[in-house]
Amino acid sequence: MPRVIKILTNYVIGPIITFGVYIFIFGHLLPGEGFDGGMIVASILILCIIVYGKDEMEKRISVNTAVLISVLSAIIFIIIGFVGMAGLRMEHKYFLDNFLPQGSFSHLFSGGIVPILNILVGFSVAFGFYAIFAYLSEYKTEE
């Protein structure tokens, strides 16, 4: 890959990852949610695979680590759902029941469990798609 593309990629990595994380943290206040922010972060990770190569990215974020983060995020999502179902509040007992206090409208902590779920979905999507692309980018040459 030409050196200019690597330099430009170095300049856009930080702002794009910051924007993706911003989207899935503030997803309950904006039209975007965890999936959208996760795809933004995944797109920059995939760009890094294309620009720097799979071997260089494997040194930084291994595919096994990405799969582990993705699966752990999904498991924690399910656990939070069952905690709501366990009925910490006696009014409702259903999956993903909001058991955290709700703040005032348009503030970061106004969504109860929704911001936490958006962050978990963002991590799961970002590292899941990164792992899928990394697996698909492996190739074998015929001998």
Brief write-up:
This protein is mostly helical. It has five helices and no strands.
Write up what this structure looks like.
This protein has helices at residues 3-25, 34-52, 54-60, 63-86, 114-136. The protein has 143 residues and is mostly helical. The two termini are 25 Å apart.
What is the terminal separation in angstroms? 25 Å
Percentage of residues in DSSP E strands: under 5%
Helical stretch tally:
5
Backbone CA Rg? 18 Å
Measured as a percent range, the helix fraction is 55-70%
- Main beta-sheet strand count, sense and barrel state: none
* Helix/strand order, N-terminal first: HHHHH
Task: Tell me, briefly, the overall form.
Answer: elongated
SSE topology:
Layout: H1 3-25, H2 34-52, H3 54-60, H4 63-86, H5 114-136
Helix pairs in contact: 1-2, 1-5, 2-3, 2-5, 4-5
Key terms:
5 helices; 143 residues; elongated; mainly alpha; 0% strand
